[in-house]
Write a structure and sequence with these properties.
234 residues; Rossmann fold
């Protein structure tokens, strides 16, 4: 493993050992505290080299939410909906700098993937509708309960460059008294079915609630899209 940092963007890059000069570049929005654990888990599950680009956001609820949403729990902060600004920052600043740094190591992208857990999983899927940069998406326990997101996926076309989408959920995640968040399983299953008519989608149920094995769940999703035999990412 080789780890590099883009200090200006609070971004860490983990490069797996590989003899290849072209590998998949995987962007993940994280809190940074579990980046190395995610990388090590993914390395055990993935059968090819890859670069994991871990981006720390300024504010999780603001940067990863597509539009405004009132607080879902009493006493918590609202979601301000700055996903478009954060995505622009990724595409215009972070990704070019990360690629430049990896190019210094003789590594270039064979494809681009984006992945995330919880609200970052929502952001990953949202990105597929907003840009043509990515070919693969992994949304693990994604916050697909988000208001109007199901309607958004129905009224927009996902990028034609997307070849693989992985969605997952814990089998206890919908068992909550919160009316909005209790819709997560129905909405995730509906999106998986409807999106599957347009591109390759794999939906997986995991055991447990939202907080069980997040690194493993996310690593499983990334490994699936990277190990997929679709035409891209080879």
């Amino acid at each position: 493993m080789k780890m590099m940092e883009l200090n200006d963007f609070r971004t860490r890059i983990f490069l797996s050992e590989t003899k290849e000069s072209r590998v998949p570049f995987v962007l993940v929005n994280t809190g940074h505290e579990d980046d190395e654990a995610l990388f090590e888990t993914l390395r055990k599950l993935c059968d090819k080299g890859f670069a994991l680009i871990c981006i720390e956001t300024d504010d999780w609820n603001d940067d990863l939410s597509p539009w405004h949403c009132d607080p879902v729990f009493k006493g918590t902060e609202p979601f301000s909906g700055k996903a478009d600004l954060h995505l622009a920052r990724i595409l215009n600043d972070i990704l070019p700098k990360a690629e430049e740094r990896l190019n210094e190591e003789g590594i270039s992208p064979s494809c681009h993937a984006i992945a995330g857990y919880s609200l970052a999983g929502l952001f990953a899927l949202y990105s597929g509708y907003k840009t043509d940069v990515f070919e693969k998406i992994a949304s693990a326990s994604g916050s697909l309960w988000y208001p109007d997101f199901l309607e958004f996926t129905r009224n927009r076309q996902i990028s034609q460059n997307i070849t693989d989408v992985y969605l997952s959920l814990g089998d206890q995640e919908s068992h909550t008294k919160n009316k909005l968040m209790s819709t997560v399983q129905d909405r995730t299953e509906t999106i998986a079915k409807e999106l599957g008519e347009k591109t390759k989608v794999f939906f997986e149920m995991n055991e447990g609630n939202h907080f069980k094995d997040p690194e493993l769940r996310l690593a499983k999703g990334i490994a699936y899209i990277l190990n997929s035999r679709s035409a891209s990412c080879r």
